[in-house]
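Query structure, 597 tokens:
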């Protein structure tokens, strides 16, 4: 009954959106769309027929204007089409298709030589990822590993000629080049033993590194659930006779062995880039193949090596009828050691990218506990007075704080805003609070840095460990337009910036509050400008004196569209999906109204 009510709720949301919110954008309001899908289709889709219905519906409603984030931190900014092979259980995703304009096709092929670029996954399930109170913020697509022989067979279906296959360059996927009727396709076949990728709204703005960590979290949680479910079957042990007890131990032990193999495959994926394990296909790996390399590289302490040996011995005795007696205590030991490695791996995932010292066990308390309880009591008036110089400007910034980790973003949380007296307050509760306005980009960067440093020092003075633990404190600057600009950037100005930019560095095109185009080399600070677009990564010849400037016109057109939205709303705009230049003159006319207002 509950699931049926949620399904009806999802249909009602869609009806309401189409009837009363026709102008809703999937780019800005993607979470609304994702909530629709989660309510209509339930928590998990486990069969290909249902997956085909969902993906057809998904493409119809969103047009593919979403982000796909992968385990290796790469991503796509759009899905062009999705095809389903129900006979083989395959889902084909494409992000590049031939363009109707042959000139555009020629330009695109300079970067992506094939007519089609995409990927294939052998479907396991589709999961709708929910936060607190059931709010959906992502769709995780899980697949099975595929052997190279199977990949080659699938790639040849329908008369395709496989010209090349490569499984050496990436632990994440096997690449295939195939050709038919003068049409070429470059495809990646996802083959890792993990949640393969997830689809998120563009408005979520999750960093690739955080996305990668989240995929690993999903994978380890699946292993953890399998381990717990297997062990819970032993609750019936005392009520069973001797033969039933023996069978139950074997059965549970075999399930724990399978879960252990999945867990250690996951860990090897996690450390593949660092240790370069010699793996051709994860399907071929068994428990001994996994624990051996991990003993030499990841789990090297004496106790960890012993526990890995215990896992292999007990699991083998349970699974292969070795003749060695196995007791309830042995299975309990196997369960307990696996729980240790699950929890240890969760901790390693959380720390990735934040390693300051070798992994150790801290005897000091976690500073996040202190910050959650006392952050609203901390005063930063001295840091404000030290940093503020500029009295006014065309834009202002307010400083926001979030206490907690990234995945708390959809929870009901306090809206902490920095006020003039130096305290962070929930402005919804304190109507008389005077919000601090910062008028300079460098000043707001300095204030945020000073606040973080002071918070860290306070925690250290209270005896909390700020080296081993993160602060769990996110500080953000929210931009608002205060006055209209005087200058309007031109395509020629952007051209000169791109020619003079250094292709050895990452470059991001932004528009500042005065209406001038700039290129910055620290993409992280793009959010501090009224308009920004996708980063041009180093070495790809998007910019520089040797670049053909293939992105020039598209970037100019995109910035014009975003600039009008900024002038209309007063808030920063970002997009990475180029738009048509149809009606560009009319958009510029609308922009100029703000200059003469």
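Result returned for the query:
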């Amino acid at each position: 009954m509950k699931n049926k009510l949620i399904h009806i709720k999802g249909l009602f949301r869609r009806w309401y959106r189409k009837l009363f919110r026709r102008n809703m954008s999937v780019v800005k309001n993607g979470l609304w769309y994702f909530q629709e899908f989660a309510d209509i289709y339930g928590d998990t889709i486990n069969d290909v027929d249902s997956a085909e219905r969902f993906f057809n519906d998904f493409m119809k409603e969103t047009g593919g204007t979403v982000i796909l984030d992968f385990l290796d931190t790469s991503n796509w900014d759009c899905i062009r089409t999705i095809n389903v092979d129900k006979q083989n259980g395959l889902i084909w995703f494409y992000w590049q298709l031939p363009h109707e304009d042959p000139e555009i096709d020629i330009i695109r092929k300079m970067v992506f030589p094939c007519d089609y670029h995409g990927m294939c996954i052998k479907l396991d399930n589709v999961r709708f990822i929910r936060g607190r109170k059931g709010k959906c913020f992502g769709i995780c697509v899980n697949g099975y590993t595929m052997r190279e022989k199977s990949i080659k067979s699938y790639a040849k279906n329908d008369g395709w000629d496989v010209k090349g296959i490569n499984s050496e360059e990436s632990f994440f996927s096997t690449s295939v080049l195939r050709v038919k009727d003068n049409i070429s396709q470059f495809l990646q076949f996802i083959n890792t033993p993990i949640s393969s990728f997830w689809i998120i709204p563009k408005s979520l703005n999750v960093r690739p590194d955080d996305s990668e960590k989240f995929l690993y979290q999903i994978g380890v949680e699946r292993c953890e659930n399998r381990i717990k479910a297997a062990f819970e079957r032993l609750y019936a042990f005392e009520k069973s006779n001797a033969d039933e007890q023996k069978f139950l131990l074997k059965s549970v032990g075999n399930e724990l062995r399978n879960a252990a193999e999945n867990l250690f495959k996951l860990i090897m994926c996690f450390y593949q880039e660092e240790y370069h394990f010699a793996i051709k296909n994860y399907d071929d790996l068994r428990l001994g193949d996994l624990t051996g390399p991990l003993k030499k590289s990841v789990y090297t302490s004496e106790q960890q090596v012993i526990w890995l040996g215990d896992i292999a011995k007990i699991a083998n005795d349970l699974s292969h009828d070795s003749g060695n007696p196995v007791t309830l205590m042995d299975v309990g030991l196997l369960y307990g050691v696996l729980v240790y490695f699950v929890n240890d791996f969760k901790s390693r995932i959380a720390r990735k990218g934040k390693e300051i010292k070798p992994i150790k066990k801290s005897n000091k308390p976690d500073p996040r506990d202190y910050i959650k309880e006392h952050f609203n009591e901390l005063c930063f008036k001295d840091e404000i007075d030290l940093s503020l110089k500029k009295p006014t400007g065309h834009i202002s910034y307010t400083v926001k704080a979030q206490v907690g980790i990234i995945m708390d973003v959809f929870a009901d949380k306090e809206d902490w805003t920095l006020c003039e007296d130096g305290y962070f307050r929930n402005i919804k509760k304190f109507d008389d609070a005077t919000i601090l306005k910062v008028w300079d980009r460098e000043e707001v960067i300095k204030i945020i840095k000073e606040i973080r440093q002071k918070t860290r020092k306070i925690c250290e003075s209270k005896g909390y460990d700020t080296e081993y633990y993160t602060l769990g404190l996110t500080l953000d600057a929210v931009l608002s337009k205060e006055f209209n600009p005087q200058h309007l950037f031109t395509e020629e100005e952007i051209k000169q910036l791109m020619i003079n930019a250094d292709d050895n560095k990452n470059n991001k095109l932004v528009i500042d509050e005065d209406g001038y185009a700039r290129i910055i080399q620290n993409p992280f600070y793009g959010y501090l400008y009224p308009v920004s677009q996708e980063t041009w990564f180093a070495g790809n010849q998007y910019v520089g004196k040797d670049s053909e400037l293939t992105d020039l016109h598209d970037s100019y057109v995109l910035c014009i569209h975003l600039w009008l939205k900024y002038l209309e709303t007063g808030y920063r705009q970002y997009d990475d999906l180029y738009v048509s230049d149809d009606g560009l003159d009319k958009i510029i006319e609308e922009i100029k109204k703000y200059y003469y207002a």
